[in-house]
Structures are given as structure tokens and as C-alpha cells.
Amino acid sequence: MQMSKLLEQGIELMLAGMLTVFFFLCILIISINFFALILNKKNDDLPDSKGSALGEINTNHMRIIKEIGDRI
């Protein structure tokens, strides 16, 4: 009789722990998506930086990659 009571308590403890972790992870996922939504809205208000600056960055990157490849 005592062994079945011990197993019952163990199963209850296991289920309580699993539910706690499940709800914590659900809240974590919801909060991450919420903050991502807020940050994306703020980034949409910034001016668009596509243009000559982006092309200049790409050419600088390609030049650096080429120089590193030549030295190796």
C-alpha cells in the first residue's frame, strides 16, 4: 500500500513539474514574439539605407575577402 501511495505522489509531482515548464515555455514564446513585433515596428520607422552605402559596404567586404584569400 505504501508503494502505490509513493508512486502516486511521484506521478503528481512529475505532472506538476511538466505543466510548470510547459506554461513557462509558452509564456516565453509569447513574450519573445511580442517583443519582436514591437522591435520590428520601431525598425520600420527608420529611414531606408538601401542605396550607395549598401553597395559600398558590399564592395568593401568583397575586397577584404579577396585580400584574405590571397594571403592564405
Secondary-structure topology with pairs:
Elements: H1 2-44, H2 52-71
Question: Could you give the order of the helices and strands?
Answer: HH
Number of domains: 1
Shape verdict: elongated
Q: Which blocks of ≥5 consecutive residues have pLDDT under 50?
A: none
Global Rg: 27 Å
How widely separated are the two ends? Answer: 74 Å
Strand coverage percent: under 5%
Total of DSSP H or I helical runs spanning 4+ residues: 2
Mind summarizing the main beta sheet?
A: none
Mean pLDDT: 84
How many E strands?
A: 0
Give the % helix: over 70%
Task: Characterize the structure shown.
- It is built from two helices and no strands.
- The protein is mainly alpha-helical and 72 residues long.
- The protein has one domain.
- It is elongated.
- It starts with a helix and ends with a helix.
- The model has no long low-confidence stretch (mean pLDDT 84).
